[in-house]
Design a protein that fits this description.
Elements: H1 4-31, E1 33-34, H2 36-39, E2 41-50, H3 59-76, E3 82-86, E4 90-96, H4 101-109, E5 114-117, E6 123-126, E7 130-139, E8 145-151, H5 154-165, E9 173-178, H6 187-190, E10 200-203, E11 212-215, H7 222-234, E12 239-249, H8 251-304, E13 308-309, H9 311-340, H10 345-377, H11 380-414, H12 456-477, H13 483-486, E14 488-494, H14 501-510, E15 517-521, E16 527-532, H15 538-552, E17 557-561, H16 563-591, H17 594-618, H18 624-654, H19 661-696, H20 702-736
Parallel strand pairs: 1-13
Antiparallel strand pairs: 2-4, 2-12, 3-4, 5-6, 5-9, 7-8, 8-11, 9-10, 12-17, 14-16, 14-17, 15-16
Helix pairs in contact: 1-8, 1-11, 3-7, 4-15, 8-9, 8-11, 8-19, 9-10, 9-11, 9-19, 10-11, 10-16, 10-18, 12-17, 16-17, 16-18, 17-18, 17-20, 18-19, 18-20, 19-20
């Protein structure tokens, strides 16, 4: 008898979930802060140096510097600045949505040290004499814009003006400077220039016992006078800031990247939904519901975390959907196996959930480990990707495991699915009579005659050959390292029409910046990427941005990396992969055994090497996002491998005696046959997401998408044909070793 109340409860839940998602998704999505790569802006990593060489650079100084920078950012009107201390001597500044990036960078980096000097450059008074918020934009007697200053002490200013008056006619000038450099600047040299560096040089004929001073004659506009006043009120920096890394994104680039990547995600996720519905029928429909809830929860949690959504973060969300399906597929394949043995849907549902839980848990923990390493060792964009991946893994576990159990459980417990295996994607011809089965009966499997172990030597030879070829490729061609690792400058130009490498090269050379090379991208070659071996200064970046914007109609993306930071990124990338590998070895050893761990790590390095060799062959640029791709594949590949290992462990427990190589080979073969469909279906769903990113996504993550695609293929291949076969060989050798028997010495008879 069908319990219709359960079915009604299912549809009521469906309506409730649909209503919540429909009502709140758009407001939540609109409330999430977008990173600079999606709305334009810039990021700079400053190395902090004390003004005086003998001065100490302590935590208090760094904190006060951040405070001063925040005040300056407030002048710009940026609502969500991100200014953080990194290490002992660095500060990272991220400002998204800034209209005039050049002006913002100048405002941040200037020390804003105000000083009053005589014509011999002797300091008479400095910015410490200024009252709090004592600078305002004003007008002089001729109604020209000026800056009015309010001083703390009238007596001090009287003393200063007295010294200037006493210098006599022709010498009695008070020169007001901003950021005077000792040994570099001088009044004598600057006064000969049409646009001197000092702010003003006014004659002083009498002693002024007042706290009111005006900076006049600085060719101010109302805007520049207001800007200087706000800068002085924000205060001078207690340190010097030197740019060691910077990246800036034009607003047009950010808008295009957001539109393309969201479209790519919608297409990829839609195909995944259709695939699940076609293969798993009713459970597939339940998976669509839980995946929709999963996407909604990710956006909600990210908003509550006050997280910043970046381009790699959206990629992680899309990729996360593909990986979240894996938990559903593992459970559904287990349920299908139980149904094929003739069990009722209720019995199959319970057994399938019970048998799949530990596999899902192990697989997610290893992927979570790789994501955590990414977060610790990655730069800001990679950290955004890692954050989204971590949130995705945790929420996918909740929705795929508990959400699926709840929703599918309502249908199963209603008994409406009894004797309807086709609703689970199971053919009636594959269902056995339960009276003819026992605990050793294997469910029908279309791959049950495939002998994976028989051809293991061929797989080893193939992989070995490819590794040798890869080593040769790397030795001959090496990697095409981007500026993240090799240091230098990258200029990305977007035009409304097609570009040519020659045109862009000539244009940049005419400015005095001849590029090392220019690579075209985009569907219509509307994007050109120029690379330089040198790191550009702030003024050089400003010049290029202004010229390119005038020529092509939009600001370019400009990234610079110093040699020091490039070396650090390379070192951190190496440590990230190494630590992830060690963590996985430890976890797999604890959960399984050390031979499983060793086989898994060999397979991981096999996959990572294939990705690196492929990039060497096709000459794609290797940047920091490629390391994120490698670590993602490390997590995904171990996920796939663990599913196989889990089934091997399960089948070993069922087999009473394991003595020969043939016994082990039978177990490995059976395990690979049983998990083959799951491995293929899982990789297909993730590939749908990646191909969507590759074809429809932003050009900024093309290399990342290619790396993921190559890694997915290599990871699936190694999980099926390398890891399990390696374990088989090593396990056989371990069993073949003669066991040492400790013989107790017989006691002498009395």
């Amino acid at each position: 008898m069908v319990k219709r109340g359960r079915i009604v409860a299912f549809f009521l839940l469906l309506i409730l979930l649909g209503s919540v998602i429909g009502v709140f998704t758009k407001p939540i999505a609109n409330d999430i802060k977008l990173g600079l790569d999606l709305q334009g802006g810039f990021e700079i990593l400053y190395e902090v140096k004390p003004i005086n060489k003998d001065a100490a650079l302590d935590r208090e100084t760094l904190v006060s510097t951040v405070s001063a920078l925040n005040k300056r950012v407030n002048v710009l009107g940026v609502s969500e600045p991100n200014i953080q201390i990194e290490g002992d001597d660095r500060i990272r500044v991220q400002l998204a949505g800034v209209d005039d990036q050049t002006k913002a960078r100048e405002l941040l980096s200037t020390e804003a040290k105000l000083s009053f000097r005589d014509i011999n450059d002797k300091e008479l008074m400095n910015g410490s004499a200024l009252a709090e918020n004592g600078a305002t934009q004003s007008f002089d007697s001729n109604n020209r814009p000026s800056v009015a200053l309010k001083l703390k002490s009238a007596d001090q200013f009287a003393d200063v003006t007295r010294q200037v008056v006493e210098m006599g006619p022709g010498q009695n000038l008070m020169v007001i400077w901003l950021d005077f450099e000792e040994g570099v600047d001088s009044y004598e040299a600057e006064s000969q220039k049409p646009d001197p560096k000092f702010l003003s040089a006014a004659g002083v004929d009498e002693v002024f016992n007042t706290t009111e001073v005006q900076i006049q004659g600085g060719n101010f506009s109302v805007e520049s006078a207001k800007e200087l006043a706000e800068l002085l009120n924000a205060g001078s920096l207690p340190v010097e800031l030197e740019e060691v890394y910077s990246t800036s994104v034009g607003a047009k680039f950010g808008e295009a990247a957001l539109q393309k990547t969201v479209l790519a995600g919608a297409i990829g996720i839609s195909i995944i939904f259709l695939f699940m519905l076609y293969v798993y029928r009713l459970p597939g429909f339940v998976a669509i519901i839980t995946l929709s809830v999963y996407i909604f929860l990710i956006l909600l949690v990210f908003d509550l975390m006050n997280g910043v959504l970046t381009l790699p973060g959206i990629a992680a969300l899309i990729l996360g959907v593909g990986m979240a399906v894996d938990a559903n597929i593992i459970t559904y394949e287990r349920i299908k196996e139980e149904l094929k043995l003739g069990k009722t849907p209720m019995s199959a549902f319970r057994a399938g959930n019970r048998n799949s839980l530990s596999t899902i848990l192990d697989a997610n923990i290893t992927t979570l480990l790789a994501a955590a390493v990414m977060f610790v060792y990655g730069t800001s964009s990679v950290q955004g990707f890692a954050t989204m991946l971590i949130v995705s893994i945790l929420l996918s576990f909740l929705t795929a495991v508990f959400g699926t159990r709840l929703l599918l459980g309502l249908w199963v417990s209603s008994r409406a699915l009894n004797k309807k295996p086709h609703l689970f994607g199971v053919k009636k011809a594959d269902v056995l009579d339960i009276n003819m089965t026992d605990e050793h009966t294997e469910p029908p499997n279309r791959y049950e005659n495939w002998d994976f172990v028989k051809h293991s030597k061929k797989f080893f030879i193939f992989s070995g050959t490819m590794i040798v070829i890869g080593i040769i490729l790397l030795a001959v061609f090496r990697l095409n390292l981007g500026i993240d690792f090799a240091s230098g400058t990258r200029v990305e130009i977007m035009a409304d029409s097609s570009l040519s490498a020659k045109e862009v090269t000539e244009e940049l050379t005419a400015l005095g910046y001849e590029p090392k090379d220019v690579v075209l991208a985009g569907n219509n070659n509307e994007i050109a990427v120029a690379r330089y071996l040198d790191s550009f200064t702030q003024s050089e970046v400003a010049e290029i941005k202004t010229s390119v914007a005038d020529k092509y109609g939009s600001e370019p993306n400009v990234s610079t990396v110093s040699p020091t930071v490039g070396q650090e990124l390379a070192r951190n990338a190496f440590f990230a992969v190494l630590i992830a590998a060690i963590g996985i070895i430890i976890y797999v050893t604890i959960r399984f055994e050390w031979l499983f761990a060793l086989a898994a790590i060999v397979a991981l390095f096999h996959d990572a090497f294939f990705m690196v060799a492929f990039f060497s062959l096709v000459r794609l640029e290797v940047d920091i996002t490629i390391i994120a791709a490698v670590l993602t594949i490390v997590g995904y590949s171990i996920n796939d491998t663990i599913v196989t290992f889990d089934r091997i462990r399960e089948n070993m427990k069922k087999k009473k005696r394991i003595k020969t190589y043939e016994d082990l080979a039978e177990i490995v073969n059976k395990s690979l046959q049983q998990t083959f469909v799951r491995s293929i279906n899982t990789v297909i769903t993730v590939v749908f997401a990646v191909i969507g990113l590759l074809i429809f996504g932003s050009e900024s993550i093309t290399g990342f998408s290619v790396a993921l695609l190559v890694g997915l293929v290599a990871g699936t291949y190694s999980s099926l044909f390398i890891a399990a076969q390696l374990w088989l060989i090593w396990k056989h050798k371990q069993l073949s070793k003669p066991k040492k028997v400790q013989l107790e010495e017989a006691e002498p008879e009395v």
